Predict the 3D structure of the following.
Amino acid sequence: MLQRLLTASLLLVLFVGPTLAQDTDPFMRHPAVHPDGSTIAFSYQGDLWTVSAEGGRAERLTIHEAYEGQPRWRPNGSQIAFTSDRYGNDDVYVMDAVGSTPTRLTYHSTGDALGGWTPDGRLLFSTRRTYAQAEWNNEIYQVAAGGGTPDRLLDAVGASPRMSPDGRFVAFEKGFNRTTKKGYEGPANRDVWVYDTENDSYTRITTDPGNDHNPVWTGPRTLVYISEQSGTYNVHRRAI
């Protein structure tokens, strides 16, 4: 009898324990805050969810065996764009903020990495569809949220494009190395750049010898980004 009780207890620890841990401490990724701060979109176990910024019950937006992540709210909050590998490689999709059948916007055989929205309803993304044989870096493209043929936005190569809230600047990163390679300070290190749409000019924003990447606007002239300049990856802020 004692042997059976010990066996049953062990099985409870092995199977029930991990399940409870997953329920009470889920691993959520790619949080994105609604423009008015009321709701957070995120990816959990390959699907997209939303939850009130105050907490509470999360609502599931997608149910698909593919992996879906990187949600991005439209500036007016009406839609969510995201990436999904439903057809074998990452493509850009868009759906209503409350959930709807997603609309596929990119169809190329290479992967497309979503950056962000423009104020007038276009989506910026990085891809390697044109210069893969000549450039290590990605190219930055745009596509309308209503669909259509994507076109190249910048002459420069780069990734993680984000347009400022007033539409004047496009922040992006240049460089090509794995960000998981901590302490890298070689010629392929990543730096944050800004393109000025009015003056048709490019400005390098970061000069640290390590990696600076994933710029995000917190206002029309202020960027936050990830940098290793303090010895490990932390979030930094800089006015341009």
User: Anything to note?
Assistant: The CA atoms of residues 72 and 81 lie 5 Å apart. The radius of gyration is 21 Å. Residues 2-24 form the longest helix (23 residues).
